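Researcher: Structure prediction, please.
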Amino acid sequence: MVLNAVWLVFIVGAFILAAIQVLQGDLGAFSKMLTAMFDAAKTGFEIALGLTGVMALWLGLMKIGERAGLIQVFARMVNPTMRHLFPGVPQGHPAQGAMTMNMSANMLGLDNAATPLGLKAMQELQSLNPTPERATNAQILFLVLNTAGLTLIPTSVIAIRQTMAAQQGLVGFNAADIFLPTLAVTCIGLLSALLITGLVQRLPLYKPAVWGPVVAVGLFAGGLSWWLSQLPPEQGSMLIGAIGSGCILAIIALFLVAGALKRIPVYDAFVDGAKEGFQVAIQIVPYLVAMLCAIAAFRASGALDWMMQGISSVVASMGLPTDFLPALPVGLMKILSGSGARGLMVDVMQTYGVASFPAKVAAIIQGSTETTFYVLAVYFGSVGVKNARHAVACALFADVVGIVAAITLGYVFFQ
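Model: Predicted structure follows.
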């Protein structure tokens, strides 16, 4: 099983590297690694604890929508496309509606809504799973698309760049100049995820019912993004936030009104769903702690630095440009840890300047890629899947494509 192998390599490899450091005279290497693992275990529990309330809220609301029949309506609306991408999911199944709402929330950058909706979708897909510990094709495709999720505007990255520019005394700095390349990279990553998983699962991606909606969503996202790019960065960020929040609140109101019109006891339905949310949040704790501890050990051992030295040597020996290399650790870290990648991005901005080429590439990577192993641990852990099959390979392929695209488009736009 791939996740088992990855977890083992992270921890055993980290121990070997730490042991080499101890033999070389760094007697604090083991202590540093152990402290990082303990801190990660605490962080994993805190993340799951923080998810408990959010999960209870969203699964409570989803239960109202389900009993009111609206989830089934959403499912029927997207069925022409979903039945080709997810042939194992019956027409009108609640999983289709939950997946659609999750992808919409991801696109609008609403992480607090996207994660609970995604976990609800995984639960619905798990109800169709004949072998509960083995991931189905539908679960794998849904998860891989999440790891390469499309986000219209990287609002947090733009905000960090604007703050750093003010600290560095830059006047007239456009923090949103990474907006279009970031959108292009996240679209490329999403398409690569769909293509590689579709090829492995032999999905009929050539059918108009599949690529038609993809093109339509791409045109809509591109048009909206172009319009927002004409606005000042702060106004654009506020506007996309207002649009996203307004859409979610409108869906909540729709669920409640539909439930009331159908004479459903909405309060009781909400409580029933909220109980499920609490159970899901608690269930992911061991999976999340296991993955975060392995990642923490890998980072603390200096394995990432060792990888960077090897990549730098290879790039230099091939005669390729090397001015993007300071940004590359952000891409490698983003696969493992979102907060770690954010810290590396800020470090690049402080070291080279927020207006420098490495800082722009780092911002593009941070705004267009997802924390793959976190998503794998949380989503599969929420339903008890242990055999990920080809999910890890497909997700990492999309990550690599995204990082290469970010570097390439960085040169196209800024060099």
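Model: The mean pLDDT is 83.
Researcher: Thanks, that helps.
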